[in-house]
Amino acid sequence: MIKFNYRYEGSSPIKVRTFIMEHGVTRTLLKKIKFHGGDTLVNGKSVFANTMISHGDEVTVVLPPEEGNDHVIPSYEPINVAYEDDNYLIVNKDAGVASVPSHIYAADSLVNRVKGYFTKNGKPDQRIHIVTRLDRDTSGLVIFAKHHFAHSVLDKALKDRTIHKEYLAVVAGNLISKQIEIRLPIGRAEGSFVKRTIREDGKQAYTSVYPEQVLGDSSLVRAVIHTGRTHQIRVHMAAVGHPLLGDWLYNEDDKRMPRQALHCHHVSFYDPFKEQQISVEANMPEDMAHFVASRQLVSG
Fold first, then answer.
1. Which of 97, 128, 138, 213 has an alpha carbon within 20 to 30 A of 73's alpha carbon?
2. What is the pLDDT at residue 67?
3. Domain chopping of the chain, boundaries
């Protein structure tokens, strides 16, 4: 079983429940610990969640065993591991691979490949906790948690908007400002299950865009998303007149790239287990890098 140890340094007695929730344990996880085989210990003895603890007490959280994702078919196609420790796995996803299984991609999504990766490494019952997702034709970094506690921590970080994600994109036209702040609400387009659009009754969405290079009649930009709406960068860039190259949904006549030119190249978040910031980068993939290099030659 997975265990986490903490020492209470406060001066006033508090409930053990309060203390471990300050370390990221959610109410849902508390219930699982209580009813599904986990435990909470104070100085080595099992206690109830309302037990009071004092300065210097040693608290241990024992996670309950997790059942594997039996419905997930392992795929043994390779994955590009960008970072891994006992709590997190960050994968550099190729374009063309769906993040999660569906009726179309039931056996070879990134989740299936991570399941196969764990199986090959002797963890066939490892439950798959995907934290962030990318569109099928977007490449780049995707975060997985290795247990419920790590997933809970990052779910809260997503809600608090403390997971930093940066993307590289090639867009049509040239941006005249050094920085663009796009705050436009996004909702589902009428008559479409897939397409999104800007609409007043949509959900708040906020993107910062920084031009990196002029590539003739297109530009390489860096985009930072402060919210996580479906197709957010694609919709926002199209809305300000700079749609992504190769985007079949929002720039359908552009064939300069075989897929939308979008890559999640940087993620960072605070890891409370190691008490440090995790920061990971993934270089621009070959197709985008080749396009940028070719346009640099033309521009030069």
1. 138
2. 79
3. 3-62, 67-160, 164-265+290-299
Active centre residues (catalytic):
135
Predicted confidence (pLDDT) at residue 59 exceeds the cutoff of 70: yes
Examine the pLDDT at 71 and tell me if it is beyond 90. Answer: no
| 67-160 and 164-265+290-299 have identical folds | yes
CATH fold of 164-265+290-299, please?
Pseudouridine synthase (3.30.2350)
pLDDT, tens digit, for every residue of 84-123? 999 999 999 999 999 999 988 889 999 999 999 999 999 8
Give me the pLDDT at residue 299, please: 54
Query: The domain at 3-62 falls in which architecture?
Result: Roll (3.10)
